[in-house]
Specification:
CATH superfamily of the largest domain: Response regulator
InterPro entries: Bact_response_regulator, CheY-like_superfamily, Sig_transdc_resp-reg_receiver
Number of helices: 10
Strand order of the largest sheet: 2-1-3-6-7
Shape: globular
Keywords: Phosphoprotein
Number of domains: 2
Structural class: alpha/beta
CATH architecture of the largest domain: 3-Layer(aba) Sandwich
Helix content: 40-55%
Pfam families: Response_reg
CATH class of the largest domain: Alpha Beta
Radius of gyration: 19 Å
Strand content: 5-15%
Protein name: Response regulator
CATH topology of the largest domain: Rossmann fold
């Protein structure tokens, strides 16, 4: 190995400030806003990020390569991230670290039972918490040597990504308002709105979810949610 190869290898080793250097993280997440936060966290930690927005896309990625870390949202448009976690927990080879994420903290137990090594509750914006979640699940020989700088920095995703999520929600609504579609939409918008601090939208999504669980009519709650989504799309910038 010549000097240039030695330098290149050294640059891929984790450091105290960039403890995830050399890792590839596959984020399976349908929210652009949540994914943008994870992209910024990976960038500041030294990791490379790849994104899949549904189970089908994630499985295409996994046919080609095995990421160092997989972070799967529990609620996805074509199924549950828990199913993907179960598949990969028993796969060989498998990602070195498998984490689940959701805005619903009550899903943490189910995620761990499915095979996840940890659970990230949205919003995921703390650099120190993100790094700790990944590193605590890694073998000791993959962790940076010596003391690690615990940065209390938080990231702020571009609000244009939030508007992208509103456009996605509008597209889903235009496809129809069957109960399955509305269940996905309530989960998706609830998580996104809480991450962005949009309390009116989060409350409306929660009302729709409760009405569905209680077997109540959904038409009015769905119309309210659709109106809030359109209101945000009509603004120049998302709130």
């Amino acid at each position: 190995m010549d000097d240039s190869e030695l330098l290149a290898a050294a640059q891929r080793l984790p450091t105290s400030r960039r403890p995830l250097l050399g890792l590839t993280i596959l984020v399976v997440e349908d929210s652009r806003f949540a994914c943008e936060a994870l992209r910024l966290l990976c960038l500041r930690s030294g990791a490379r990020i790849r994104r899949a927005d549904c189970l089908k896309s994630a499985r295409r990625h996994l046919q080609v390569y095995r990421p160092s870390v997989l972070i799967a949202d529990v609620g996805l448009p074509d199924g549950s991230g828990l199913d993907l976690i179960r598949e990969l927990a028993d796969a060989s080879p498998r990602p070195g670290v498998i984490l689940a994420t959701s805005g619903d903290s009550s899903l943490a137990e189910a995620a761990l039972a499915a095979g996840a090594a940890g659970f990230l509750e949205k919003p995921v914006t703390s650099l120190a918490a993100f790094q700790q979640a990944v590193l605590s699940s890694m073998p000791a020989d993959r962790q940076p040597c010596g003391l690690r700088v615990l940065d209390d920095e938080t990231v702020e995703p571009d609000l244009l990504a939030y508007r992208d999520d509103m456009a996605h929600a509008a597209d889903v609504l235009n496809m129809g308002q069957e109960e399955k579609t509305l269940a996905y939409l309530a989960q998706f918008l609830g998580g996104v709105a809480r991450s962005a601090g949009d309390r009116p939208l989060a409350d409306a999504a929660d009302r729709l979810a409760r009405s569905r669980q209680n077997g109540e009519p959904l038409k009015q709650d769905a119309a309210t949610l659709a109106g809030l989504v359109q209101e945000r799309l009509q603004r120049r910038a998302a709130i």
